[in-house]
Design a protein that fits this description.
Elements: E1 2-6, H1 12-23, E2 27-32, E3 63-66, H2 70-83, E4 86-89, H3 96-105, E5 110-113, H4 119-134, E6 140-147, H5 157-170, E7 178-183, E8 190-196, E9 201-207, H6 212-225, E10 231-233
Parallel strand pairs: 1-2, 1-3, 3-4, 4-5, 5-10, 6-7
Antiparallel strand pairs: 6-8, 8-9
Length: 239
């Protein structure tokens, strides 16, 4: 049984991931954390005997699934490197220094990092790579990135990844791929890529109906990364 740690269970994604781990037969939730100021801290998590801690000190786990903020991820990264533990990173909004730190750590431990843990989104990445080769430069490419009003990064990591894939496979400069971000209401996540010429539109879209899809993908990532050699992996390695 794979032992799982989930920091940030006071957040939407941390909570969703932890709940799914509790339901899985092949995974065991052994560590959950929250910020010291969070009301959950020091209390039992849901109907378990597991106490919500404020840090990872002396924690015992095999894989850490992290959807917290970049600064917290880097702190957790140091702990995992020190103790040779695997990580699944679903957080976004990293700066260049933080991304470099993750790459350096991946030389010592296995890390699976993805801007979007949805299996459907990662299949879309592959579809977009194929589609981009079919549309010449007479077609403009636009990405519309829709999320709830509380999402901090804009454009989303998913939109940036889509743009990178489209630019690389179509032979265009990244600046030629237009991204429009909308942050309103409770929209979980909608990403639409449009290929357009003066007479036609072709659209490829992914709609997240709930956050469970990201948690499901994160658990699949944890199962896959467990026992792997050090390296930086992505969800594309799974799909």
């Amino acid at each position: 049984m794979i032992k799982i740690a989930v920091p940030g269970v006071g957040g939407r994604m941390g909570s969703a991931v932890a709940k799914q781990v509790l339901q899985a037969r092949d995974l065991k939730l052994t560590v959950v954390t929250a910020r010291t100021a969070n009301p959950l801290c020091g209390k039992k998590f849901l109907n378990t005997d597991l106490l919500v801690a404020d840090n990872l000190a002396s924690s015992k786990f095999d894989v850490l699934i992290d959807f917290t903020l970049p600064v917290a991820v880097i702190e957790h990264l140091a702990y995992c490197v020190e103790h040779k533990l695997a990580m699944v990173i679903g957080a976004t909004g990293f700066n260049d220094f933080q991304l470099h730190a993750i790459k350096q750590a991946a030389q010592k431990i296995p890390i699976l990092q993805a801007a979007n843990m949805s299996l459907g989104v990662n299949l879309c990445y592959k579809l977009l790579a194929q589609a981009a080769k079919m549309f010449d430069h007479q077609w403009d490419i636009t990405i519309v990135d829709e999320h709830h009003k509380h999402k901090k990064d804009s454009p989303s990591g998913t939109a940036k990844q889509m743009a990178q894939i489209l630019a690389e496979t179509s032979g265009r400069d990244l600046e030629e791929i237009n991204i429009y971000s909308e942050r309103q209401g409770d929209t979980i996540g909608v990403h639409t890529v449009t290929f357009a010429n003066p007479n036609e539109l072709v659209m490829i879209s992914h709609v997240a109906e709930n956050r469970e899809i990201y948690a499901t993908g994160a658990l699949a990532a944890a199962r896959w990364i467990f026992g792997k050699q050090p390296g930086l992996y992505s969800m594309l390695d799974i799909v």
